[in-house]
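hiii, so i know i said id send this last week but things got crazy w the move. better late than never?? heres the sequnce for the chain we talked about at the cafe, plus the structure i predicted for it. fair warning i was half asleep when i ran it
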Amino acid sequence: MKQIDLAYKLYLSSTLSEFWPIKIEELSEKLLSETEDIKVKSFVRDEKGVAIIKTKGDKCSLILIAVDKAFQRQGIGKSLLEGVKNDCIKAGVKTIYLGHKIGKYIWPGIPEQPDALRFFTKVGFIDYWGFPAEDLKMEIADYRPDNSIYQKIEKSSFKIVHPDKNDSKKLLQFEEINFPYWEKYFRNIIEKREYDKFLIVKDSGNEIVASEIISWGDYIFSGLFSGLVGSIGAVGVLEYERGKGIGMALYSKGMEILKRNDIKYAVVEYTSVPGFYEKLGFERWRKYQMLKLEL
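okay and structure toks below
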């Protein structure tokens, strides 16, 4: 059986699929589609459980570990994890993260479920954030922007626009210098020339001071919703320009764009500042524990 077919079979037979329905194409895209410098490897135990990791340099990300419900609490998960640890030690890996850190992922951390948290902390994983990451959601059919938000930044000579080809180099430099973790996401969208998936804020000197990514049609857990899903993320505002309403205006404009594209639900993924989004009308939805293991 092919790696992805077995992984999907075990995913469906585990408790994960009850809370996080996903199509095999989406699982395959997240697990297998990577660049050459990222190594993907799977561990299987008697076709009853599977673990999939991604490694790059001295870091590893445990992307998926799933055990058939009929064989849980029999030590299969622990055995798979031992296999992962031993392989990582041999490869010179120093840290194993759960969920993200390397390439594409399914969850940014461990979905907040008591059994999962107990399992990983018992074998030595620790929380390295001190608080959970959170997803938020909102139905946007009746969304109405607060125009005073736009008026406020316009008085300060800021303008919100879609970038074009001529802005590409400056935008990538902006991300690389100020928000390097997001640079790869911006680069990927620029390479596809999907400039309508960006918004940027320029000052009176035509310099970029803020940016965000808007997306739709690619939410991995779209099966949880009864309509089209979009998201707003990777919002970055230069530190010295914060507190002027720029971030709020960017999100509001992003919501308008999602609405114009017939998106029914907006999702904010993997944030450590849920209170900001609650001001826009989002509600807290799912949490993830951010865990790692030092080898």
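btw The first strand starts at residue 39 and ends at 45. thought thatd interest u
miss u guys!!
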